[in-house]
Amino acid sequence: MAGKGPDPAHIVTLQSNLIEEFGADRNKKDRLGMSLETYVTASAVLLAVFFAVVGLTALIAVRRSRSRCTHCGAKLPAGTAACPACTGLTPPDAAAPQDRESPSPLPGVVQLIATGGPLVGRRFPVPSQGLSIGRHPDNDIILADQLTVSRYHAVVTVEDGQHTLYDRDSANGTWVNGQRIFRHVLEPGDRIQIWQSQFAFSTSHTPPPSPPPVPVDRPTIHVTGEGFCGYYLENLIGRGGMSEVFRALDASGRVVAIKILQQTDPYLVEKFVQEGNQIGPLLRGHANIAFVHEFGKSPDSRLYIVMEYIDASSLRKVMRREMSEAETVKIVGQVCSALAFAHENDIVHRDVKPENVLVMEDGVAKVLDFGIAKLTSASTVTRDKIVGTPEYISPEQARGERVLPASDVYSVGVVLYEMLTGSVPFRRPPDQAGYGAALEIVRQHLYADPEPMRKRNPSVRISTRLERATMRALKKDLRQRYRDAGSLCRDLGYRDRARATQPPLRAKRASLTVLQGPRRGTVISLTGEPLVLGRFELGSTDTAISRRHAQVFFRGDGYWLEDSSKNGTWVDDQRIYGEVPLPIGARIVIGENVLRLDPT
Questions:
Q1: For residue 92, with 0-12 CB atoms within 10 Å meaning exposed, 13-18 middle and 19 or more buried, which class applies?
Q2: Of residues 245, 390, 240, 401, the one with CA closest to residue 309
Q3: Taking the CB of residue 33, how many other CB atoms lie within 10 A of it?
Q4: DSSP letter string, 231-251
Q5: Which residues are known catalytic residues?
Q6: How far, in Å, CA of 138 to CA of 123, rounded?
Q7: pTM for this structure?
Q8: I want to staple 134 with a disulfide (CB 3.0 to 4.6 A). Which of 105, 139, 343, 408 is the partner?
Q9: Kind of pairing between the strands at 558-563 and 523-526
Q10: How far is CA 275 from CA 258, 370, 372, 374, 425, in A?
């Protein structure tokens, strides 16, 4: 009604509603404020914890990074970032100060004491489970950044109460007391040499290690005019650092050549005969490979090879005279043909050099020493001598890695470069002694590019095609180099007329049956392709089994197994190191797993 004021009761009701709404909003705001405060506080706490963890992790990382030298792998003294042991690539004797005393052995501990090289002065106790040595961080003794040392180079194991050193089929060898070894039962005072590093084996009963014995050249063990294992030795026709070669007659009067190796180590004898008799028959029948009749050992455990007698000069001697491009291509093409046939049979020569190639009067070339370079001829710089010829080694071998067919190609490239220019790509510095010169050659194989051929020898006359093929063979990167000798042979323009009388053997089908382990009952087919056996393949969670514990592959006329683990692989109750053939029925033990090789 007009002119009438508001109803007092209505006003009271509105006030009450406003107060309630205001109170509710205030409560909401209070609750919201409390929630925001709680959220901010919790977030601050979480961020503080996060940054504390990050800081602690960074601190641990820094301390760990400082705990080892980034160059040599040696542990650093507490409170310092400088490595007192790291002296670069210098002769081992110069790595330690001359007035430094030999470290004394720890009482009651079987150990290896570093007496030379980057780790000099350090002691490494040998636990019951063994001690591994190599470049990979998984090893107990890490020889990081040391040229020619393999990832898993050697291992000390405890067998029947004795400490035994095994070379794990390393690319460049393990040495004890000046002799290359594959298996050696350690005695107190033994000196172990792996590239620049030297170790003395010590027990609680031995005094500080004494200086290593001076190597003594072994005298000729056989003379002409006497019998040897059913052969009559006519005359000595060659002598090298590890062998002597005789012209001889067999029982029927046939002329043969016998190479007698100066080795008696039982493990080497067994491995030599085993691999020689596997590899030798595979390469018979190729016109450019010296025919091998027999691998064996004499009653006094001397290793020997009986091969066809070739009345020819070494390529080293032939290279002393001027050679035409056509003659060079003919010789190198035959070498590539021989290597290609070997590569098809999964065999790598490992030691291609002019001394291992013979050239007959009619120009036919023959390649020698297939399958034994791994055991007898690897190029290595030891404490006091150079073994082999570092001028021809591939970058892979210089790094201590597995050699491949492409590694042979690199060595052929070195030979080809030398034949065309008159010198190898990387020559020994005239102002350095033998040891330092060898180190410099190895460095150049790894890091330096060969000088252009026309710059090395301006008078050289070669086709662009031949020059391009030679330089490609010398590429450091395996992806840029020829994959195998057959590819190089084709690019040289050589027409291979040396047809092998027998083709490469095809892989036999077989299988691995899992007898024990998480995948018990599983049958794994083998088709000739390499098969990796590791934690994943075996379905195991056991960390003692490596991710790439072992590998089964086909070679020649049967399957082989290669161990690359830290904790070991057993074949027929024997721990194996490196590569071994697998007979049908062989039982393989990897951790908790037992497998058997069965025919298919």
A1: buried
A2: 245
A3: 10
A4: EEEEEEEEE-SSEEEEEEE-T
A5: 351
A6: 18
A7: 0.65
A8: 139
A9: unpaired
A10: 18, 11, 8, 10, 33
Cα 75 off chain centre by:
24
pLDDT tens figures, 458-483: 988 889 999 999 999 999 999 999 99
The Cβ of residue 55 has, within 10 Å, a number of other Cβ atoms equal to 10
The residue written with tokens 């009986």 in the block is 306
CA distance 345 to 282: 7
Strand 131-134's sheet: what is its strand order? 141-142, 131-134, 154-159, 162-167, 183-185
Show the low-confidence residues of the chain (pLDDT under 70): 1-108, 204-225, 240-242, 263-272, 274-276, 371-388, 432-435, 497-507, 556
Burial 397-425 (b: 16+ CB within 10 A, else e): bbbbbebbbbbbbbbbbbbbbbbbbeebb
How high is the mean pLDDT of the chain? 78
Give the tokens for residue 497: 């007329």
Residue that has been written with the tokens 């392709």 in this structure: 529
| Residue 445 to residues 135, 374, 405, 434, Cα–Cα distance (Å) | 19, 20, 17, 17
Angle among Cα 268, 274, 279 to the nearest 5 degrees reads 120
Kindly report, residue by residue over 524-550, the tens digit of the pLDDT: 999 888 899 999 999 999 888 988 899
Tokens standing for 13?
């009701």
User: What are φ and ψ of residue 5, in 5° steps?
Assistant: -75, 175
Token digits for 201?
């084996």
Helix axes 464-473, 405-421, angle to 10 degrees: 140
